[in-house]
Each structure stands twice: as structure tokens, then as C-alpha cells.
Amino acid sequence: MNVTLNPTECALSLLAQATGQSPEAGTAAAVQSVWDFAVKGGPVMIPIGLCSLVALTVIIERVASLRRSKIIPAEFMPGLKAILQDVEEDRDKALAYCEKDASPMARIAEAGIRKLGRSVEVVEKYVQDAGEREVIKLRKHMRLLSVIASISTLLGLLGTITGMITAFQTVAASAEAMGKTELLAKGIYEAMITTAAGLMVAIPVVLAYQWLLSRIEHFVGEMDRTAVEFIEEFAETDRGVDGPRVESARIPFEAAVGG
Asked: What is the pTM of this model?
């Protein structure tokens, strides 16, 4: 007989055995513990929680968008080369192909195709402008992630400072000499919760931000190389003369990938 073990159920069973509770009680205790953690942190936990939700939404959206199949489809350039055999006769078909693909690389190529027949410098300029626009789109919401990482930490620190002030005020106002140490320790414990919560949000957001930024830089480099190849093949061919090669005239999309 095959028995499928659920890791979550196993963990709850072990927790229940250690605490003498049923798995259902263990789950309820865990939920209650998280809720108590949030409540004891005070009002500052609300904006920290909102920051975590916004960051999670942005990260999921960016991960879904920053995929090779959506940015530089493997079949796009071979398909474009197969269609664009003659610039004048096949221009409309090539433009329709780019519009149908609708990827960032397709929009960059479309900008270049519209200017084929003019000088290489003009084609380069339009391709570069289109590339910079696409890089800005790739960086969508990235600054928001950076702000959330900073704000979450500062909110946690703010919550701790205000909590410490409240704790010392409570101790100072207490008329009883006995129990002040315990009262102060309890206040400090609750005040430190916000710092922990802020760091729990900020650290994963910083890691996600750096990872997403590295993916953007990787895709920008690939779009840059593909754009240079496009200009070399189609713009040079269209001129029909041996003009200056564009290998040394790298299309600087990277200029738009700022921190």
C-alpha cells in the first residue's frame, strides 16, 4: 500500500507531539502566534505589512514579465531574416511580423526597419532610441522595490524607537518599585518586533531587486548585440557599399540601465 506523506502534515504532527497538542491545535497556535507578533508590534506594523504586499506583487509581476520568450523570442530574428529578403518589397511584411510578435526586440527591429534605405547612422539612431525606451519598460517598478527595501527598514526602526519611548514612559510612570525590570523588558521586547519585521521585509526585497536587475542587464546586453547584428546585416546590405562597419559602434542600451 502506498502512503503519501504531506510535509506540512508531518511538521504539524511533530510540533503536536512536542507540545502535546493535536495538529489542528498546532496550526491554530501558529496562526495565533503570527497574529500576536503583528499586534504587539503596534501601528507601525500596518505600513510594514502593506510594503510586503506591494513588494510581493511587484516581484511576481516582474518575474512573469522578465522571461526570454517575452523579451527576445528565439524564433524572432530567424523569422525576420526569412521575411526581409528585399527591403523595399518586404518592408510591410516585416513590419507586420514585428507588430504581431510585440516583444521588446520586435519593437526595436521595427524602428530600424522603418528607416532602412537611409544612412546607417540614421538607422542606428532610431534603433538606439527604441532600445532605450524598451529598457525603461523593462525597469518598470524596479525603483519602487528599492524604495520599499529602504522604507521597510526605516519603518522598523521608527517602530522600535517609539516603542522604547513608550516602554520607558510606562516604567517612569509606574509607582511600584518591584517589577519595573520585567515591565521594561516586556516593553523593549515588543518594541524590537518592528525592527525584526522591517528586516524580514527588506532583506528578501533587496535580494529580489538585485536578481531582477541582473536579469534586466543580461537581456539588455542581448538586445544590444542583436540590434548590432540587425544593423550590420540589413542596413549595410541596403546601402550596397562598403561603408563603416558598426561592430565598433555599439548600440549603448546599457546607458538606460541605471540603479
From this structure: 0.74
What pLDDT digit, counting tens, does each position of 235-252 carry?
Answer: 765 544 444 444 434 555
Please tell me whether residues 21 and 50 are part of one structural domain.
no
Structural domain count of the chain: 2
**56 and 30 share a domain?**
no
Cα 58 to Cα 251: distance, rounded to the nearest angstrom: 29
Q: What is the pLDDT of residues 91-113, one digit of tens each?
A: 899 999 999 998 999 999 999 99
**Domain of 22?**
1-40
Is residue 109 a contact partner of residue 99, using CB atoms and an 8 Å limit?
no
Q: Distance between CA atoms of 145 and 213, rounded to whole angstroms? A: 11
Nearest 5°: CA angle at 13, between 10 and 16? 150
